[in-house]
Fold this sequence. Notes:
Blueprint: H1 3-14, H2 40-53, E1 57-61, H3 66-74, E2 87-90, E3 104-107, H4 114-118, E4 122-126, E5 129-131, E6 136-139, E7 156-162, E8 166-167, H5 170-176, E9 184-186, E10 191-193, E11 199-201, E12 208-214
Parallel strand pairs: 1-12, 2-3, 2-4, 4-7, 5-8, 7-12
Antiparallel strand pairs: 5-6, 6-9, 10-11
Amino acid sequence: MSAREAILAKARRALTDVPDVEPVLDVPVVRPAPDRDHTREEIVDLFDERVADYRAVVERATVLTAADAVAGALAGRAPQAGLGPLRILVPPGFPEALVPGDVEVVHDGPDVSVSELDRCDGVLSTAAIGIAETGTIILDHGEGQGRRAATLVPDLHVCVIRTDQVVPGVAEAVAALDPARPHTWISGPSATSDIELDRVEGVHGPRTLHVLIVEA
């Protein structure tokens, strides 16, 4: 008798006193449908609330105040080197007008190594979509969003998302995404827990996520 046959024989013996039960088929699973009867303002407010629930920093801005808000998100952070300006990674396509003038800009590209990314104090990016129900930000790594490593290695991620990019739920987000593109779904800063449930941040990605919601 093979090992497989021995295992199956033990399973059959264990089930000898279990009565046969006809499978129940075609029983619909009833799940509450998400409420889509919200105004645009309510959807964005929910997104703001859910993102903050993940211990991310959330800030509102307008087109006119967005540059100051980005500068404020970087203010007060000490550079890794201890001296000189912050080294901030900027992916191709990120709006130049939002990049503070008092930082050392590292233009991301395939020639920028992971060790170089690790030397950056933070990264700026835009986003593709925000999901209000889950507080999730989705990057499809298009213009202004950078490659996946760019938003995972630096300790700070400042993400700029417009209000018209926020959708109510996951279904709308999936419908709007291009399945041929890579996607990174971000729900708060990187966090994990050890066996004693002690929370540790920054192990698998940025320790700080600062989300700037810009009124479109």
